[in-house]
Amino acid sequence: MQRIPASQVVYSMSHRNPPVLRTPLPARLTFETLDCFGGQVKSCADTVATLDFSRVNPATGPVYLEGVRPGDVVAVHIQDIRVFSPGIMVAAPGAGVLGDLVQQPETKMVEIKNGKAQLGLLDVPVAPMIGVIGLAPAGEDIPCGVPGRHGGNMDTTLIAAGSTVYLPARVEGGLLAMGDLHALMGDGEIMVSGVEVAGEVDVTVTSVPGWPLEYPLVSTPQWVAVLASAATLDEAAALATRQMAGLLRNWLGCSLNEAGMLLSAVGQLQISQVVDPLKTARMALPRHILRRLGVPLAF
Q1: What is the band of 1 on the pLDDT scale with cuts at 50, 70, 90?
Q2: Residue 224 falls within a domain, yes or no?
Q3: Residue 298's pLDDT band (cuts 50, 70, 90)
Q4: Which domain covers residue 106, as residue numbers?
Q5: What is the pLDDT of residue 210?
Q6: Do residues 130 and 181 lie in contact, with contact meaning Cβ atoms separated by under 8 Å?
Q7: Does one domain contain both 136 and 242?
Q8: Residue 180 burial by CB count (10 A; 0-12/13-18/19+): exposed, middle or buried?
Q9: C-alpha to C-alpha distance for 174 and 242, rounded to whole angstroms
Q10: Quick one: 170 and 63 in the same domain?
Q11: pLDDT in tens, 236-286
Q12: Is 0.85 topped by the overall pTM?
C-alpha cells in the first residue's frame, strides 16, 4: 500500500499540477486527507469569518496513473475510510439552503468516539464518505470545491467504503486527487457542511479502456448511479438522466423511449448536494434490475 501524505495537497484539479506519486495499475493507495477547512478550525471560536478561503477544500495528490490515456475510465475502488476526531460543522450567513435565515456564523466541534458522532444529545453512528474525488480536466483549472465531469466536490453519500467511483480521464495519467471527508452528511448538505473531518482512505485503482462514459458514475452493492453537476439542480438532474439513458441504450440496445420508460418506472433521481458553486444530482438504478436485464455488472 503506497501512502500519499496530507502534506501533499492541491486546491484545484489541473493538468499542470505536478504528480506527487507515479504508479502502475492496479495500484493500492492510502490517501491521508485534511478536513475541508485545511486544519484552520481548532475551536468553536474559529468561524467562517476567520478562514483563509484560499486554503479551503484541499485535495491530497495528484497521483499519476501509469498507462491511463485520455478516453479511458479510471476506477477507484474504495476499501476503507477512517475518520478522525473532532469533526467540524459550520453555519454561515448567506450560505446554504437556510443561509438567508442565518444571522451570525457559528462553529460546532463534534466529538467522534467508538464509531459515533456526538450531535448534541444524540450519538449517531458515523457513515464516512468522500466529498472531493476527481481527475484533472484537459482545459482550464477547476477549484477543488467545484464539481463537474472530472469529479471534484460532488459531495455524494454513495461515495463510501464498498463503492467504486468511475471517472473519465481527460489527460495522460489521469492525475487522481481526493479529500473533504465527512463522518456524516445528509443528502443535499443543506447547511454547507457535513461533519467535516480529516482522515485516511484506502483505495485500489484500475482502469477501463474504451468505455464511453462522459460523467462520473458510482457503483455500490445496491445502486449504479450517474452523477452530474450544473448551475441549477434542474440542469444537473437532466444531465444525469440523459447520461443514464444513453448508457442503457448502449448496454441493452434499446430505444430512447424504452430507456426512458425504464428509468421512469424504477430509476431514482436523487439530490447529492445543493450548496457548491455547481449543484449535483444523480440518477440511480438498482443493481438487481440491471442484473435481471442482463447487463454485465463488471462495474
Answers
A1: confident
A2: yes
A3: low
A4: 2-208
A5: 82
A6: yes
A7: no
A8: buried
A9: 25
A10: yes
A11: 999 999 999 999 999 999 999 999 999 999 999 999 999 999 999 999 999
A12: yes
- Asked if residue 151 and residue 73 are part of one domain, the reply reads yes
Radius of gyration over alpha carbons of the chain, in Å?
19
Whose CA is closest to 175, among 71, 72, 63?
63
Among 183, 208, 233, the domain-final residue is 208
Q: With bands split at pLDDT 50, 70 and 90, how would you rate the model's confidence at 146? A: very high
The CA distance from 100 to 192, in Å, is 13
